[in-house]
Amino acid sequence: MMVDVETGLRAQKVLPVLRLPSAAEATRAAAAMFDLGLGLVELTATTPGWEQALKDAITGAPSGGGVGLGTVTDAGIAARAIGAGARFLVSPWPVPEARAVAEDAGIVFVEGAFTPAELAAGTGRGPAKLFPAHVGGVTYLKSMLAVLPKVDGAPPTIIPTGGITLPEVPDWLAAGAAAVGIGSDLLRPGAVDVLKDVLERGNP
Questions:
Q1: Catalytic residues, which ones?
Q2: Cα separations (Å) of 160 from 75, 82, 101?
Q3: Confidence of residue 202 (pLDDT cuts 50, 70, 90)
Q4: Which end of the chain is more exposed for a tag (fewer CB within 10 A), N or C?
């Protein structure tokens, strides 16, 4: 049974953003995340051979999970990602033409946003990625959640990404993040042990 992407992200709390220099490395990194019990991971369109990496990573995804593609900056990338089997797409900023492709295919589109206007528009259409999150920090997220309209009576789904370290994840979750995107910090020595601890603790 396929798990709803938003539900899955809220449950796993951390979204690995695997921006790697080769398709083989991206595939191995995705497999490592699945081995930790994470069901959803994000590869990026900046990885050479990302389409093959996406297909290969999908074969190792757990039941109900899947692989998404990030750094989707145009409709062509969106269409290719969907053709390769992506379960969701993520943009670094608003990309209306890519959103249209995703919506036509029934695929979740996580729209990149930073300004209050972008966040209000993005969360009104679905989940949004606060990027680059480190610029405004946790305080900025709290301020935005205090004024953004609720969605069906619930807080909007915002996934802060960019410049966040693993030890900071609980602070972002406590501030109201639905999940937290983690990139380069996942690749440093000892990161797996820190990630395990974060996943076990969840919201402080």
A1: 42, 129
A2: 23, 24, 24
A3: low
A4: N
- Write out the H or E segment, with its range, that includes residue 69: strand 66-70
pLDDT in tens, 125-181: 999 999 999 999 999 999 999 999 988 888 999 999 999 999 999 999 999 999 999
- Give the N- to C-terminal CA distance of the chain in Å, as an integer: 30
Dihedral sign from CA coordinates of 1, 67, 78, 183 = positive
CA dist 165 → 141, 162, 168 (Å): 16, 9, 5
- As a whole number of angstroms, the distance between CA 104 and CA 2 comes to 19
Domains of the chain: 5-197 (3.20.20.70)
| pTM of the full structure | 0.94
Answer whether 102's CB lies under 8 Å from 82's CB.
Answer: yes
User: Which one-letter DSSP state was computed for residue 19?
Assistant: -
At 112, which amino acid appears?
G
Q: Region 70-93: what's the mean pLDDT?
A: 98
Q: Which among 56, 58, 131, 59 is positioned nearest to 90, based on CA atoms?
A: 131
Nearest to 147 by CA among 172, 178, 179, 115: 115
